[in-house]
Amino acid sequence: EAQLVESGGGFVQPGGSLRLSCAASGFTFSSYVMSWVRQAPGKGLEWVSVISGSGTSTQYADSVKGRFTISRDNSKNTLYVQMKGLRADDTAVYYCARAGPDYAFDIWGQGTMVTVSS
Amino acid sequence: DIQMTQSPSTLSASVGDRVTITCRASQSISSWLAWYQQKPGKAPKLLIYKASSLESGVPSSFSGSGSGTEFTLTISSLQPDDFATYYCQQYNSYPYTFGQGTELEIK
A101 burial class (0-12, 13-18, 19+ CB within 10 angstroms)? Predict the structure, then answer.
């Protein structure tokens, strides 16, 4: 069964850094485009970033461009996002998601909470 | 960026009702539209992809239609498990964008 498990969330002060991980299992990780999607408390879903299966191509939402870096290690079946210059409005549950054969997000992790506060 | 607008924001309905949620895109997205269901404290779940294709394992009471800029999600007969928040999402072009969500509540 395909599964994604996020980790690395926590409490960080404004301006701080954090790296989230997403461990994949049950499918050929390197064959799939992967994304990060976040959800602020009580709010809707916001797409954050995407990375190709090989890791050579990436895209970012304007709200995180220049501060977040998405990457993957296909030998470890793991997706990452390095977050720097964190702001209060980055506070959210962060989900990793697999883009299925038709590119909709067909598998989601359970999410990891990031809280940015002084 | 492509804006996605859902209506209504909240929908009150009863078990057995037929309900429809609408999603409008600010420009054409062909059929690159997905619908997700989310319950409190849980990750979203894919229901419909490519506007009208039913994801494996999703009840046939769910259906999607539309293309271009106008899309609908229909639940033919509401079951207790269907009360949740629903989101549309365009994946025609980056940045991918979601609608603001429709909360389906029990009347």
Answer: exposed
pLDDT at B67: 98
Q: Is the four-CA dihedral A95, B64, B56, B13 of positive or negative sign?
A: positive
Judged by CB atoms closer than 8 Å, whether chains meet at B99 and A44 is answered as yes
Query: What is the structure's pLDDT at B107?
Result: 87
Which residue of B4, B30, B96 to mutate against A (max A Cβ within 10 Å)? B96
Q: For residue A53, give how far its alpha carbon lies from the nearest alpha carbon of chain B (Å).
A: 17
- A31-47 pLDDT tens trace: 999 999 999 999 999 99
Three-class secondary structure of residue B89 per DSSP: strand
Buried b (16+ CB within 10 A) or exposed e, A1-25: eeebebeebeebeeeeebebbbbbe
Q: Chain A residue closest to B103 (CA)?
A: A44
List Cβ neighbours of B14 (8 Å cut-off, separation of 6 or more): B78, B106, B107
Output the CA–CA distances (angstroms, integers) from residue A94 to A9, A29, A73, B9, B62, in the order listed.
Answer: 8, 19, 19, 23, 27
Contact A13, A106 (CB under 8 A): no
Q: Please state the φ and ψ torsions of residue A31, each to the nearest 5 degrees.
A: -85, -5
